[in-house]
Write a structure and sequence with these properties.
Length: about 180
């Protein structure tokens, strides 16, 4: 009988301490995670030097970008200093990129706030895998996030403001440089 009393007391204490409110704060990975991924990649026509990213275009010109923010450590947003942005998503040995203007960047941030940072990958993949990112549907960017019908309507309204207006460039998937 004594043994069962001890077990009962231990269970009561465990449940009391496990229900205790804590000040645990959930944080996102820092920007160093995505910068390390970018610096370790090897893609033809792509030069990564610290916070700077240079992409050579087929016509011989170069687009230069500076790192601005991380998207949950899975992707990075780079700015060109002239109001243009590039979303870069290193995935395995490939690099997915898509350019956007300031209005699209603001809409992208707003959509990520609605679907949640944990679903950012689905949003980025929806844009990258779209045949025309200037005519996106809510299903393209919502992914498998659990949002309400009201939130879906907000996403739809955001996309309706962007659709057909060339706010996004053509998505590009850059394969690895196998010569290195």
């Amino acid at each position: 009988m004594k043994f069962s009393k001890y077990i009962l007391m231990i269970l009561i204490l465990l449940s009391a301490f496990s229900c205790k409110k804590t000040n645990l704060k959930v944080t996102e990975p820092g920007s160093d995670l995505i910068l390390d991924k970018m610096n370790s990649g090897s893609w033809p026509g792509v030069i990564v030097n610290g916070n700077n990213l240079t992409i050579s275009m087929p016509d011989g010109s170069q687009n230069n970008y500076t790192f601005e923010e991380s998207v949950l450590g899975i992707g990075g947003i780079y700015g060109d200093g002239s109001g243009g942005y590039l979303v870069a998503l290193p995935a395995g040995d490939t690099l997915g990129t898509v350019t956007m203007d300031q209005e699209a960047k603001a809409a992208f941030d707003e959509i990520i706030d609605i679907v949640g940072p944990g679903n950012a990958l689905g949003t980025i993949n929806g844009i990258l895998n779209s045949s025309d990112p200037n005519n996106l549907t809510p299903e393209d960017v919502i992914g498998n996030s659990n949002i309400t019908e009201d939130e879906r309507k907000i996403v739809e309204d955001i996309l309706n403001e962007l659709n057909g207006k060339n706010h996004f460039g053509t998505p590009d998937i850059i394969k690895p440089d196998t010569t290195k």
